[in-house]
Each structure stands twice: as C-alpha cells, then as structure tokens.
Amino acid sequence: MSDSILRQTEQQLEVALQAARMGTWAIDFATNALTTSELCRKDYGWPVSQPMTNDDLLRLIHPDDRKLREKLIGRALAAQQDLEVEYRVIRPDGETVWILVRGRADYDDNGVPVRAQGVSLEITDRKRAEERQRSLVAELNHRVKNTLAIVQSLALQTHRTTDNPVAFMAALNARVRALAKAHDLLTENSWEGAMLKDVIGRTLDPYAADWRLEIAGPPVRLNAETAVALNLAFHELVTNAAKYGALSAPGGAVGVTWTIDRSLQPEVIEIVWLELGGPPVDPPTRRGFGSHVLEAGLTHELDGVVTLDFRREGLVCTMRYSASGRMYGVT
Fold first, then answer.
1. pLDDT digit string, tens, across residues 34-49
2. Are 281 and 311 in contact (CB under 8 A)?
3. pTM for the whole thing?
4. Taking burial as the number of CB atoms within 10 A of a residue's CB, which of 12, 303, 315, 322 is the most buried?
C-alpha cells in the first residue's frame, strides 16, 4: 500500500471516529505506557493537550467500579476475547460520567498479552436514559399494583353494600369509570399530580349541564395517589346527591369550596361539600360504601379529618388536612 493511500485510509478512519465521538487508546503491558487520542482524553475530562498516563487513568475511575473493571479486563485477557467494559469516571472537575471501553489485545507465542488497543466512548446520556427507563418501569409496576388493589377493593366493598347482581354491576361499573377519569387526568399531566379544581371538575362534569354546581377555591396541587382518592370520594358524593340528595330534586344545588388557613403552620386546607334544596335528609341507619370511602379511606389517604354532617336541609361533608401531609402543595 502506497504512503498516500495509507494516509487517506488513516484520515478516513479519524473522520469516522470523530463522527462516532470515539476516542482511541493503546497500552503496552510491558512498560505500562498508555497512548490516548485527544477525544479519549476529553472523555475522561483530561486536558487534551497533556498526555495521560495509565496511573492517571486509574485514579480517575470511580472507586466502586475499579474492582469490576479489573475483573472484566482480566477475564477477557485470560480468554483472549475482545474487551468491553463500562465504568464511571470522576473527572478532575468533579463531574461523574460513564465511559464505554472496547478493545482487543495482541499476544505472544505463549499466550501472554503484550499490547491492547481500542476505542472509548462517553455514554453518560445513555446510562441516564436507561436509569430513567428502569425508574419508569418500576413506577408503572407500582401504579398497576395500586390500581388492581383499588379495583379489588371497589369490587369487594360494592358487593357488600348492594342487594343484587344488577345493582352490583351498575355501581361497580360507575366506580371503575370514575377511577378511569382520574387516570385520564393524571395521564394528561404525565402522572405528576393534578390540580384539585380539575379533579373535582372532571368528577362532577356529567352533572355540570344542570348548572347546579359551584366549584371555587385557591390553587392546590395533588399528588397522584391523593388525586385518585379524592376522585373516588367526590364520585360517591355526587352519585349519592343524584340519587337521594340535592341533585335528585328540581332546584337543588351542590357547592364545593376550599380554603387555605395560612395563619397556621403548617397551613391547613379545608374542603367543604354542601348540598341545598334537595329532599329533607335523615341520618342513615347504616354506613354504605360511600361513607366508608370518605370516613375511612380518605382519612387514611390524606392523614386528615373527614366529617359527614347529615343536616335536615342537606348533607355537608368537610375535609380538613395539614399542608405537611401527603396531600398537596399550595401554590
């Protein structure tokens, strides 16, 4: 091969390596001499104009990854296989990055490695993406389990409080649809929570055309679990109001308002569900599923206090929670 062709081939290889963001390295095992390209030194955060020794490189490797790196290199050399290893590097400026190293060794007649060379690639973005994916999968698994547990609880409690299969299916379907609405709202917000006003509005939306609903209060953001719990609670309240309460009679009205008591530390939110204009209310002789969701489930979820006041003129449900609880952030 002529010198011109050789130089052209080397230039093409250099361009390809730069396009792939790969540095090159070579080490002589007899002398421990390390040779690195500028891009390789840049991957390690080393000044590109200064040579980097093998001792310099070893000092940059994260302490928790050194033994694994040595083990993988030793295994590859012993088996005379290509080397591929990923490890963290703490750059001189303190930044931690991930480096992928690939290489191949040359051996003497006795099978002793005498030299190795290969490429390096900084893969921090890829490792972070992999970590985010693992976190998302774990979070998805957690949410699926939670959702299945909620559906199971809905089915069991609905069965205990309904008298026949037809009523059971109707009530269960309505509650599952309410749960689906909460999930739709959270999906629209990338499962990073939802505003209290949106949770209430989405739950009460089927009744909004009657113009007998009032929703008002300052901005309050709920986490995902709390949004689901409140969604189910308001579903039970509005369903009861439509069947027996204020929304079952002409002229009836429902108001949902909430306030923030900033004089307390931590601040306290109070949510009030108020029904007016419906049939006269008699206190129930037994607690149904709706009361269980409100008084037990919601109290536990929000670590607060829920009271049901069956006034003659209409039901009043009051929910009161500390801002230090798991419920929300006040904005």
1. 999 989 999 999 998 9
2. yes
3. 0.64
4. 315
Rounded to whole angstroms, the Cα distance separating 37 from 25 reads 6
| 314 beta partners | 311
Cα of first residue to Cα of last residue in the chain, in angstroms, is: 72
**Where do we find the tokens 């709390």?**
226
Is 325:302 a contact under the CB 8 Å cutoff? Answer: yes
Reading the block at residue 67, the tokens are 């033994």
Q: How big is the chain, counted in residues?
A: 331
pLDDT digits (tens, 9 = 90+) for 229-288: 888 889 889 888 888 888 888 888 899 999 988 888 878 889 999 999 889 988 876 666
- Nearest to 61, CA basis, from 75, 49, 72: 72
Amino acid at 321: Y
DSSP structure class, residue 276: E
User: Hey, is 123 helix, strand or coil?
Assistant: coil
Rg of the chain, C-alpha, whole Å: 33
